[in-house]
Structure formats: C-alpha cells, structure tokens
C-alpha cells in the first residue's frame, strides 16, 4: 500500500487550490499541463476527479521524479487494498503541451486541459495548437478533407481551465476569436499579484451541459471579463477595484505607438470600474 498524500502538509498555492475547486466531475481525462511538481494533479487524484489524470511537462528529470512520487502516493490499483473503489489512474507524459495526444482516447472522451503559470503569448499558442490538432485529428477520422475548423459545429468534448501570468486582455481576445466560450471565471489575489482563472468550453453547442457550474450556459468570452465582476461582496468589490486600477494604470503607461488600441482597452476597463463604483 502506498504512502498517503497529505495536501495539508504541502504548501499549495491559492491558485492551484482555486483551480482544483473549479474542476467539476464528468470528465474522462484531465490534463495537468506544465505541471511542474504535479501538486494540482495530485489534488485531483486525491478526490478521484476523473478516471484518468495526466501530468504533462517537457522537462524530463522533473517528470522522472514526479513518476516516482506518484507511484509512492498513488500506486496502481492492483497494489492497493481498496480494489473495488473507482480510483483515478494517472499517466506522466514528457512532451510539448501543444502535442497532447487527445485523439488516441477516442472521439467520445471528454477532456479538460489545465494550463497555469505560463505567459499569455505562450498560453494562446498552446491552446491554438491543441484545438487545431484536435480538429485535424477529427477531420481525419470523419473524412473531412476541407479543414473547416468551425468550433460551433464541434461536439462538447474539450474544455480548458487557464490561468495566464500576464496579458489577460490579449489572451481573452485571442481565445474568443478561436471560438471558445466562457463557463466560469475567477479573480484571485495572491502574494500581491492578481490572476484571472478562466474555465472555457469549445463551442456554443456545449452550453446546455453542466448545470453545477457558476453559469448554466456558456456565454461569450469578454476581453475584459464578465462573470467575475458580478455578485461581489464588499471585500471582493474592493479587490476588483484595486485590480482594475492597476490594470488601467498599466495600459496608460504603454506608449500609443506600441498599442494602437490602447484607448479602447483603457475605456473598457474604466467602464467596469465605474459600474462597480455605482
């Protein structure tokens, strides 16, 4: 029998804890990407969040060490005493996140891809590659040789939880253009830094699925946020105002020639701040 993973004995960031809380039941595969030491995935394994949890990173020594840790805390089912329980399985992948092998698990499998702690530009590139690869694989399986990647015609099999480190406006705009819709979002402050956590779904056709999420239907992904400004108590409202002040100040300091749409972005955030001040 393996050792017991005690989350309380490990320093787990508020970001990872919040992401863990945002992961619902109902997925066949959860992919903890750029997983570092695998703490988020271990939280998911601990509560059997999905039949299979995947750990993905391109740093080989890190993945080798993580495999040893996982074997220690979450041994294969045949090595445990509780063989009759529906326990999550795990798999470690040492590869580029852009090359996730989603298609090999079948067309009906429902995937949740989690990417946190990377910059906005890289995050957009990774999501764009994952969506394009998945659609290309589907086209090959269905015989569609035209390459018409219309996400609104996709089945609801791929979702993302994303937490970019920077460039949230750019990330949101780019992912909206990609056809992703919003299921939930959360503004978090940790160690004097703010983070936006986005739960996105692949298509409008997915909107009637999970009624346990914050919204019963997927909504358009706003470049400046929507759900996370609603229903706030006094403390959360003050936090949101500080974040908006900081964000507005950041864009105001950027020279106009570097960001031609700067005034549009500032005005959009100022509009939200005015609404919170009412």
Automatic annotation (TrEMBL):
A Pfam match is Methyltransf_18
The positions making up the signal sequence are: none
- Keyword Protease carried by entry: no
Q: What is any one GO biological process for this UniProt entry? A: methylation
Q: Name one GO molecular function term.
A: methyltransferase activity
Does this UniProt record's set of keywords contain Transferase?
A: yes
Classify the source by domain of life. Answer: Bacteria
Q: Which InterPro entries match?
A: SAM-dependent_MTases_sf, UCP028234
Question: What are the alphabetically sorted keywords of the record?
Answer: Methyltransferase, Transferase
Family annotation (PANTHER family): TRNA (ADENINE(22)-N(1))-METHYLTRANSFERASE
Tell me what this protein is called: Sam-dependent methyltransferase
Per the UniProt record, the source organism is Shewanella decolorationis S12
């Amino acid at each position: 029998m393996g050792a017991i993973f005690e989350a309380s004995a490990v320093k787990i960031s508020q970001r990872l804890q919040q992401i863990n809380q945002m992961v619902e039941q109902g997925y066949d595969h959860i992919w903890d990407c750029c997983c570092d030491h695998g703490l988020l995935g271990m939280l998911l394994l601990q509560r059997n969040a999905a039949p299979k949890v995947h750990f993905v990173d391109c740093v080989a020594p890190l993945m080798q060490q993580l495999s040893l840790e996982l074997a220690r805390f979450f041994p294969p089912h045949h090595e445990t005493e509780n063989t009759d329980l529906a326990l999550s399985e795990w798999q470690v992948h040492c590869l580029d996140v852009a090359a996730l092998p989603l298609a090999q698990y079948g067309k009906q499998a429902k995937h949740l891809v989690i990417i946190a702690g990377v910059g906005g530009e890289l995050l957009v590139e990774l999501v764009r590659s994952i969506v394009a690869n998945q659609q290309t694989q589907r086209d090959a399986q269905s015989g569609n040789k035209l390459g018409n990647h219309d996400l609104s015609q996709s089945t609801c099999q791929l979702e993302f939880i994303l937490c970019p480190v920077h460039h949230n406006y750019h990330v949101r705009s780019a992912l909206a253009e990609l056809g992703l819709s919003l299921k939930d979002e959360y503004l978090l402050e940790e160690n004097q830094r703010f983070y936006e956590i986005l739960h996105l779904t692949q298509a409008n056709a997915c909107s009637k699925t999970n009624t346990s999420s914050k919204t019963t239907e997927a909504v358009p992904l706003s470049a400046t946020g929507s759900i996370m400004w609603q229903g706030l108590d006094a403390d959360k409202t003050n936090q949101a105002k500080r974040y908006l002040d900081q964000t507005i100040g950041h864009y105001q300091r950027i020279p106009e020639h570097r960001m031609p749409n700067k005034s549009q972005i500032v005005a959009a955030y100022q509009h939200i701040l005015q609404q919170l001040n009412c």
